[in-house]
Amino acid sequence: MSLTAKIDHAVIVGAGWVGRQIAARMAQHGLWVTLVDKSQEVCDDAWQWLKTLPAPSENAAGVGVAAPSVTDSTPLPVEPSWMERIAMSCSLAEVFTTPLREAAEGDAADGMELARKIDLVLECVPEQVSIKKRTLRQISKLAGTDTIIASNSSYFVPSMLSAYVTEPRRFAHLHFHVPVLRDSVADIVGCDATDPAVVEALREMVVRIGIEPLLLRREHPGYIFNWLLQSVLKSALELTALDVADPDTIDQSWKAVTGMPLGPFGMMDRIGLDVIEQVLSNARWASPTEVDSAQLLALVQQHTEQGRLGTKTGRGFYDYSEAGQITKLHRPTKLPQDGGVS
After folding, report:
1. Which whole number is the average pLDDT over 117-135?
2. 264-271 vs 247-258: helix axis angle to the nearest 10?
3. Assign residue 45 a region: left if phi > 0, alpha if psi is -120 to 50, beta otherwise?
4. Bridge-partner residues for 326, per DSSP?
């Protein structure tokens, strides 16, 4: 693939809560997707989750051919359903060394050819720099030199990771916001080594899947929204750590004043408390001297250590019904004020 070519097939490394949503969004808008995770359990869970999604109400990507005139008797190619556009694998190496799919009955032949190419590899592994570096090294060894490599990192900047990508001209960050299936925005930014054609190819693809691309002028931790949001979330955790108010009261205040449906703790549940924990552990947020960052991390870990990761598990700072309604608040254990962690 030329770096200026259209992205038709994306490999997503990491089938967790975000990776599977990106896969669904891409497939529903006409891309071929291979979703990879080394854990068979995660792959199985992702596939079962994908099967619960309703079919798109219409062909969102305009995939296929234009409707023929009444006098046109040429048979139309049969488009695969969006689920047929997704392949699962537990081995990244196998994705690059074996055919991804055999043409299935009803699949368009040209579509299957697109499925055998790999235009983009997007890493969606946990927000830990050691894991991301290791993953990018592996991707670089396997992907062709004209395959675009991107990171979905929430806070790391491209220059922190580009050294672990061979041919860094093809590397950029492509960051999606959850829930990805809702029309939203995606952050796109490269580093000094990034070929502008890579940014343009990512921009075009993002537009094609119905998301608004935000092209940053320069790299910055957290891009735009996450950098704004982290101040709110950090402040909410500090208010709880200082025993000023409990999470429910803080969320009530936020919702009443802003008119937004979610408060800071509800937002953290939606993002995933495991993600919040990773960000805090990476020390991406600075804390005032009055509250030690370890206290904020401990507030989150009270939940993650019990498997309460937010809406993805049905339990986080709040419990949620199957319909997604809040049913209970989990009040955090009071923490010492001297910066220690209970």
Report:
1. 95
2. 100
3. alpha
4. 320
Shared domain check, 25 and 144: yes
Residues in contact with 41: Cβ distance below 8 Å, sequence separation at least 6, in sequence order:
none
The whole-model pTM stands at 0.75
Amino acid residing at 105: E
Give the sign of the dihedral formed by CA 10, CA 14, CA 15, CA 21.
negative
Domain with residue 187: its CATH number is 3.40.50.720
Domain that holds residue 54: 9-58+81-215
* pLDDT tens by residue, 191-227: 999 999 999 999 999 999 999 999 999 999 999 998 8
Contacts (Cβ under 8 Å, ≥6 apart) of 93: 142
pLDDT of 38: 96
- Collect all residues with Cβ–Cβ distance below 8 Å to 3 and sequence separation of at least 6: 146, 148, 169, 170, 195, 197, 198, 201
Last residue of a domain, one of 172, 192, 215: 215
User: Do residues 245 and 117 share a domain?
Assistant: no
CA angle (117, 178, 223) in 5-degree steps: 85
Q: Give the lowest-confidence range in 15-24, 109-118, 155-164.
A: 109-118
Strand order in the sheet with 120-123: 86-89, 32-36, 9-13, 120-123, 148-151, 171-176, 185-189, 212-215
Cα radius of gyration rounded to whole Å, the chain: 22
8 Å CB contact between 24 and 53: yes
Pairing of the two strands 9-13 and 171-176: unpaired
How many CB atoms within 10 Å of residue 328? Answer: 12
Q: Which two tokens stand for residue 92?
A: 């990244």
Amino acid making up residue 319: D
Q: Which residue has the tokens 């009443």?
A: 256
Q: Tens digit of pLDDT for each residue in 290-316? A: 567 788 888 899 999 999 999 989 999
**Within-domain flag for 168:** yes
Please check whether residues 110 and 39 belong to one and the same domain: yes
On whether the CB atoms of residues 118 and 98 are closer than 8 A, the answer is no
CA 95, chain centre distance (Å)? 20
